[in-house]
Specification:
This protein is α/β, with parallel strands linked by helices and 432 residues long. The chain has two domains: 153 residues, NAD(P)-binding Rossmann-like Domain (Rossmann fold, 3-Layer(aba) Sandwich), CATH 3.40.50.720; 220 residues, Dihydrodipicolinate Reductase, domain 2, CATH 3.30.360. Helices cover 31% and strands 17% of the residues. It contains 15 helices and 17 strands. The strands form three sheets. The chain has a nine-stranded mixed β-sheet with strand order 15-14-13-7-12-11-9-16-17. It has a six-stranded parallel β-sheet with strand order 3-2-1-4-5-6, sandwiched between helices.
């Protein structure tokens, strides 16, 4: 991996600022079981402090922000000044610090895997924003790192910690719809390409490092922005498009409701057998054209139990579950039932019960102390992201794919298996 040198200001921030901060004992060092002592804080560092990173800074009271890292030095320093903590330009330097117990990773998608794996190797617990990975191979490597190093790893699928998502999915999981006939999700667009003119790199931004494993291309604000310009989330080198951006919410709810958190579908196919030809974005314009062209071929999944999932007119953050005895719609922390009485049916002995969490960070912190697995454990995040990646690959290839969720390979399809990961430039390879 390319290493950017610390500026004098960054050096002062990493060295001098720490002298002014109180020392916090790492989690688990003090306090009785289940009741941390007064100084038993969890020292948290942030990797990526752009739009999403800033939104994730409302930690529980037993958390302490001790450091932030960003390839945009001016942004890192501004946030560090605001939060009264240290600033870094290289996250690996931050991971070396003894007062750091855990990290929150809120980088663009193409920068999720390496910091997550390196944090596990450094003995830090991890919270990585969704979608967990840029590729299926990356996701499995992240799971393996968490397990190998005994780390508590939460995926930022916050809807697992929202009451009405849980209640809606619980009705489906308990079988109150009878035999499940079909599931309708949103028709999320796949990513597209970009060839944009070069613009001056903003002061303090290490653009080469921002490009990470991808082939560096000239800086342009429409790539660097997260969303709306359209931003990196729409472009294939850095993301899976809104298929992974929003699909990692909606398709995750399907996995939860179906009870398939450790597996996935066995077949994926587009409505029409024609390969996707993503448009190329060459000048500032609306995202509408790219998203429209990259979502015209709707995708279907089939699970081993016979349930079919259709990407169609479903809600963005949930799904419509249709069974022989009724229907449940889950979306944006609300759910509706038809007939309405389905919501009033009590759970019977022996019916599966979903884990309860009403605060995603609180759940992560509690698991850091107990060493239990969190509600959106890395395996769950990986499996949900995989569903998104499978849809993108089925669209790209334009044909039915048979998937082995145990081996995580396509059955009898070498071309598809070559797309389980993406090329990486030298220095950015996955460890191991």
């Amino acid at each position: 991996m390319a290493v950017s040198k610390l500026t004098r200001r960054e050096f002062l921030a990493t060295g001098g600022a720490g002298l002014a901060l109180p020392f916090f004992v790492p989690a688990g060092a003090l306090g009785a079981e289940g009741k941390p002592g007064a100084n038993d804080r969890i020292g948290v560092g942030y990797i990526g402090v752009g739009r999403r990173g800033l939104q994730l800074m409302g930690l529980p009271k037993d958390g302490q922000i001790v450091a932030v890292c960003d390839v945009n030095a001016m942004r890192a320093e501004a946030v560090a000044s605001m939060k009264k903590c240290r600033a870094y330009g290289d996250y690996r330097k931050m991971l070396e610090q003894p007062d750091l117990d855990a990290v929150i990773i809120a980088t663009p998608d193409h920068w999720h895997a390496l910091p997550s794996i390196h944090a596990c190797e450094a003995g830090k617990d991890v919270y990585t924003e969704k979608p967990l990975s840029l590729t299926i191979r990356e996701g499995r490597a992240m799971v393996e790192a968490a397990r190998r190093h005994g780390r508590v790893f939460q995926t930022g699928s916050q809807r697992r910690s929202m009451k009405h998502h849980r209640l809606g999915c619980q009705i489906v999981r308990a079988g109150h719809l009878g035999r499940l006939l079909t599931v309708i999700a949103h028709n999320y667009p796949s990513p597209w390409q970009c060839v944009l003119p070069e613009q001056p790199v903003p002061k303090g931004l290490d653009w080469d490092t921002w490009c990470g494993q991808t082939v560096p291309r000239p800086y342009h604000a429409d790539i660097y922005a997260p969303r709306g310009k359209p931003g990196w989330i729409s472009f294939a080198p850095y993301s899976g498009g809104e298929m992974t951006g929003n699909g990692s919410h909606g398709l995750d709810q399907i996995q939860w409701a179906l009870g398939t958190d450790d597996t996935g579908p066995i077949e994926i196919w587009p409505e029409r057998e024609e390969p996707l030809r993503p448009p190329v974005y060459k000048a500032p314009e609306s995202t509408a054209r790219g998203d429209r062209l990259c979502s015209q071929n709707r995708v279907r999944y089939r699970y081993a139990n016979g349930v079919t999932v259709k990407l169609d007119t479903g809600p963005v953050a949930g799904a419509v579950f249709i069974g022989e005895q009724g229907k449940v719609v889950v979306d944006h922390n609300r759910f509706t039932c038809d007939p309405p009485g389905l919501a009033d049916e009590p759970l019977k002995d022996g019916e599966p019960r979903l884990e309860i969490s009403d605060d995603h960070f609180r759940n992560w912190f509690d698991c850091i102390k107990s060493r239990a697995r969190p509600i959106a454990d890395v395996e769950i995040g990986h499996r949900s992201a995989t569903i998104c990646h499978l849809a993108n690959l089925a669209r790209l290839l334009g044909r039915k794919l048979r998937w082995d969720p145990k081996r995580e390979t396509f059955v009898g399809d070498d071309e598809a298996n070559r797309l389980l990961d993406r090329p990486r430039r030298k220095g950015y390879e996955l460890p191991g």
